[in-house]
Amino acid sequence: PQGALAYEYDPLSNLTTLTLPTGQHLNHLYYGSG
């Protein structure tokens, strides 16, 4: 189904880019204490 999220990580396993189903790219996302 449509609506899948795509995640990209840097070599240290930090989430660097989140691609939304709409095609938007959110860069440098940090969760928790970051």
UniProtKB/TrEMBL annotation:
<protein>
    <recommendedName>
        <fullName>YD repeat-containing protein</fullName>
    </recommendedName>
</protein>
